[in-house]
TrEMBL record:
Keywords: Dioxygenase, Iron, Metal-binding, Oxidoreductase. This is Dioxygenase. 2-oxoglutarate binds at N105, Y106, Y107, R191, I192, N193, L194, T195, L196, R197. GO terms for cellular component: cytoplasm. Binds 1 Fe(2+) ion per subunit. It comes from the Bacteria. Substrate binds at W57, Y65, R66, Y67, D121, R147. InterPro entries: Alkb, AlkB-like, AlkB-like_sf, Oxoglu/Fe-dep_dioxygenase_dom. Residues 98-200 form the Fe2OG dioxygenase domain.
Length: 202
């Protein structure tokens, strides 16, 4: 496996997962989920998204993939990243600067997945990417620095944390599928992934 990939299974207790989810549910009442679309084709993503933090990740035909300081629908600033996530970031990454973006991916139905990609819309590739899984389990595929080449698959369960740092920061990765019904955490099922990133150079 590529250097810099860290897997922390069952990092969050069930109670911590529930508390985080309660906080997020409250936040998305105003900081709504929205459906981004592909830059060239305008095809909607199968995953619904929103962000927290000073910058949020958005995508649409008009502007392509980018970070911006406000919600694309409400035009209001994103709500701040929950403290619990900020402390997970400093405990696990040891990176001195806090994350600027927490992207929330909501995999709601059977069609939801995320194709193999690299996270490359940021300026700072020295900072790791940290992601928290909540709800139904997902099959996470991790490759190397080239799209072709060997990949490994890891089942991410609710409460697990993944870090892509070092060489793995620029590795191809994606979500092949969600194992619906594998967790009872989300009352309507599905999976939430929270990804913390630095965007600008510290
Ligand atoms: O859902 C996941 O675990 C991965 C999400 C991801 O790769 C991304 O948002 O860039
Ligand atoms: Fe990614």
């Amino acid at each position: 496996m590529i250097a810099g990939f860290e897997y922390h299974p069952e990092y969050l207790t069930r109670e911590e997962q529930e508390n985080l989810l309660t906080e997020i549910r409250e936040m998305i009442k105003s900081n709504h989920l929205f459906q981004p679309s592909m830059p060239k084709t305008d095809k909607p993503f199968s995953v619904a998204m929103t962000s927290f933090g000073s910058l949020g990740w958005v995508s649409d035909k008009a502007g392509g993939y980018r970070y911006q300081s406000f919600h694309p629908v409400t035009k209001r600033p994103w709500l701040p990243i929950p403290d619990k996530l900020l402390s997970i970031w400093s405990d696990l990454t040891g990176y001195t600067e806090p994350p600027e973006c927490c992207l929330l991916n909501y995999y709601q139905n059977e069609k939801a997945k995320m194709g193999l990609h690299r996270d490359q819309d940021e300026q700072d590739f020295n900072a790791p990417v940290l992601s928290v899984s909540l709800g139904d389990s997902a099959l996470f595929r991790l490759g190397g620095l080239k799209r072709q080449g060997p990949t490994t698959s890891t089942k991410l369960n609710s409460g697990d944390i993944v870090i892509l740092g070092g060489e793995a920061r620029n590795a191809y990765h994606g979500i092949d599928r969600i194992l619906y019904g594998s967790s009872q955490l989300l009352k309507n099922g599905g999976r939430i992934n929270l990804t913390l990133r630095r965007v600008n150079k510290a």
